[in-house]
């Protein structure tokens, strides 16, 4: 079969050209319910959170229009099932953060993982947020609340219209705040954290709508002076995150409402990418929709028209021809401008029958990517097997291995086992280990256990323990990774059971491989010469740091509470002369960490037990 085709435009390229003059007005996201907001000044004065109808009756709400200024969408978890924030604790965090922006905070730094994916990302100046009048959308006061509960008017609620308008609200907002402080509910039986925000189905929907808008960056608010800008690839693969349909819902029936809502945003983004002639971005999202729609009742979108089965090349199966038609490929050995082949996109798609047909056409299972795809974030040299592991397309994992795909990899970071471990894909880890994949480190000397720790992947850790003995040194190194990234309280306790040293001070961890040392040195020099970021600040202070210091430098408050509860000391000094207590006071909180500085660790113990769901044991 020839690897080269005629140079005429593919149906995908032809359709993309035709959209240049067709898209603007026809693809606006429908807003079925007005976008009610409150101005910045009103928000700052709030001492309690009142529902939509109460604020509307007092003429507090403002129907936002773009010519009025900028809007900000506030995504948050409900602290209680009947009220989002009964004690106004979450809102006070946002209010104090906004006051910091109006005073001392000049820019919002890029978060650790976003900077790791793209070191060229710039902090967001707070002057940009405050440059025009600012209005806030917040579900409890922007959407109908009481009328949907009325027995007398069961069909009069406008809440479904507001829900279906979420993509339009997000699209109209210049800024998106994820409000994620570590807080317990008023009854002291539950805890909300950044990890739980990532796991909630409604929060996943809002985040997905933001990432499917033209401006996909968003701001994570952990505390009044702990804000981070999240941008770039891989946000849906963060610890605790995943598809909307696999998120947690207090009311299970809510899941059935969200498929059409998500698809509106996805269709709009696909057509926008085509109009912009961003074909690699289009191919990524077209195939990524299989992952995004997992667990939802919705029909997949196939935007490129004109596919006729009776016009197919008989060399290809109908499934391959349809895939080529939608993705704009002519042969299995093509590469697009992002360095991806058809098999790489099929691995993202995950359809086993499609992958089987491509392999039957002699697609190379060991072929690796040639560039960093801007929408995936993996470095060049990633295999189809690693991509399948990342998105839990485990039937594809089995097929690629059965086609004699190599389970080992020369990729710097994204080796299949490292990827599967970091993204809590325990099934893929089991498949790889049965295929005799070695428990080896990557080029940064990151082990599969440390990768699991960085993603709070408890299921993977248990799978690794079944295959290998873990030393106390291995557990301690994993504790460093858990503290630095997203490891939560439960992971900390499990590592402590494995004899991890909560008071170990980093030494060899900072000097593990020549590549790691080179990057560490570069980041320290950047920090010294006043280009201060979260990543290089962490590296600057890493030598001699304890896991607790790493957690505090990364803003991982849940992990910090668990470490203190497990006996971490606050008075040990790193090579820069700083203690954990210094770092807590420098950040001004949160309260349970400030109490620990005064020798009162009960609040940290409570927070960590709540994070593990062990509140019954506490009482």
Automatic annotation (TrEMBL):
Entry superkingdom: Eukaryota
Pfam families noted in UniProt: Ank_2
PROSITE patterns: ANK_REP_REGION, ANK_REPEAT
UniProt xrefs under Gene3D superfamilies: Ankyrin repeat-containing domain (1.25.40.20)
ANK repeats: 338-370, 543-575
InterPro entries noted in UniProt: Ankyrin_rpt, Ankyrin_rpt-contain_sf
Alphabetized UniProt keyword annotations: ANK repeat, Repeat
Statement: the UniProt record of this protein carries the keyword ATP-binding: no
Protein name according to UniProt: Ankyrin repeat and sterile alpha motif domain-containing protein 1B
Organism: Cladocopium goreaui
